[in-house]
Design goal:
The chain is α+β, with helices and mostly antiparallel strands and 324 residues long. It contains eleven helices and 15 strands.
Length: 324
């Protein structure tokens, strides 16, 4: 890897629109009164104990520009990213529902085709939803339900843990966005097998905390994990594996089709890395979990703080008591 200009990289990350968008979560949850409830807010899914593990619920809505530019892929992502949220919490998805708006059947067709293709590839059925194809533009929202025997959460990263990034590098960018697409042409058997890695890690007790790498990229996702767990995180950017031909600054802004951060105790690092290696998923220790509230990038020698969530919270959720 070429020498890293930490200062320039830090400024780019601080101004990232993907990270900035997470700031809106706090205002919405406060308005709804959600963060005053017993269920902790800030995870990839809502997790409700049901006497035999947890029911997991998640929902994703998509930017109009994305739906307009690539409606088939937006439909695919509607299923895929919801599945990823369930898997991030150690769960297995079992059904999705959708809400589709479009200008006629012709406008709706690529959205619906993309959803159907993903549902069939991942083996997670679409069981219902809402349809309005008498509107002037395409819009999409998709929700999912799953189940976990043992949770991975955003609230259980602990000082002393190592931060692992696991990302499927077997893909390419899907222009014009920073989506790393490693799923649409992958064998269905492989996709379904990869989904089981995190539930197996959770059920084996190898990890307590994980998070899906989302629009905020690796660093934005680390900030959310640190804020929920009330810890600090240092990320060594020189330790992040990069796909061939991809620059570090773009990779840090990337939304991968299969990508997770895991906070793992040192004793369990090798067993966790082995689980991903056996599936040919790139996984590496990229940092450490520390006491405090700063999320910083390092090059092994120098260190630059990206955000202090104690003084400048990202999701503005405030302290949360979490138990499971």
């Amino acid at each position: 890897m070429a020498d890293v200009d930490l200062g320039t990289l830090a400024e780019k990350l601080r101004s990232s629109s993907g990270i900035a968008a997470k700031h809106d979560i706090g205002g919405v949850t406060a308005r709804l009164g959600v963060k005053d409830k017993a269920v902790a807010v800030g995870d990839d899914c809502a997790a409700l104990p049901d006497g035999d593990g947890y029911l997991l619920f998640a929902i994703e809505g998509f930017m109009n520009a994305f739906v307009a530019a690539d409606p088939w892929f937006a439909g695919w992502c509607g299923v895929m990213v919801n599945i990823s949220d369930v898997v991030a919490m150690g769960g297995r998805p079992f059904a999705v529902v959708d809400a589709v708006w479009a200008d006629g059947e012709v406008g709706a067709a690529p959205l619906l085709d993309g959803m159907r293709a993903a549902a069939e590839a991942y083996g997670v059925p679409i069981v219902g939803g809402h349809t309005n194809i008498r509107t002037d533009r395409g819009q999409l929202s998709v929700a999912i339900v799953g189940r976990a025997k043992r949770l991975l959460t955003s609230f259980d990263a602990r000082p002393g843990d190592m931060l692992i990034a696991a990302v499927d590098h077997r893909g390419r960018y899907r222009a014009p966005f920073d989506n790393w697409e490693a799923a649409t042409d992958a064998p269905a058997e492989r996709l379904r097998g990869d989904l089981d890695i995190l539930p197996q890690i959770a059920e084996a007790g190898l990890c307590l905390a994980a998070k899906d790498i989302s629009q905020g990229g690796i660093v934005g996702t680390a900030i959310m994990l640190a804020e929920c767990s009330s810890v600090g995180i240092d990320i060594d950017v020189t330790a992040i594996p990069l796909p061939s031909g991809v620059s570090l600054d773009r990779w840090l802004a990337t939304f991968p089709s299969f990508g997770y951060l895991l906070s793992v105790s040192p004793d369990n690092v090798q067993p966790v890395l082995h689980r991903f290696a056996t599936r040919n998923i790139s996984a590496a220790v990229i940092g450490s979990v520390l006491p405090g509230s700063t999320v910083a990038i390092t090059d092994g020698t120098n260190r630059t703080v990206i955000r202090d969530h104690a003084t400048t919270p990202l999701m503005q959720l405030g302290p949360t008591e979490h138990s499971q």
